[in-house]
Amino acid sequence: MIWRKLIAPVFEVQFLRYGISALAAMAVDVGCFMILLGQGAAAGLAAALAYGAGMIANWWLVSRGVFDAGLAPRGPIRLRQQILFYGTTLSGLAITTAIVSVLVAAGMLPMLTKGIALVVSFFLNWGVRKYFVFRPA
Q: Cβ(69)–Cβ(90) under 8 Å?
């Protein structure tokens, strides 16, 4: 029975919209990652900077297209929400940077390690955003 609780969100329309938004933000992330690698940046640094660019794109997409019902009104309440969004996303950044750095050092291809990190961050951020950051008041 617990597996039903774990997979139920996958079938929600909101989850589908989140996935589409995440793909768009991922395009920003991966695009920046590839550009930075092409410019000679270390894989871990490239992953961190690219993740930051994707994170900014993700705020705009997710706050308006996925969790719009939970988006706080402009002002101090929204600022608090943005701080929570970016603050909790730092755990995804740390995980992404660690996964890429460790796996590249172990000999894996940077793009493969980036893919692994994206999957882990996707599910982590979905849960935090749905149940914490954009929880309707």
A: no
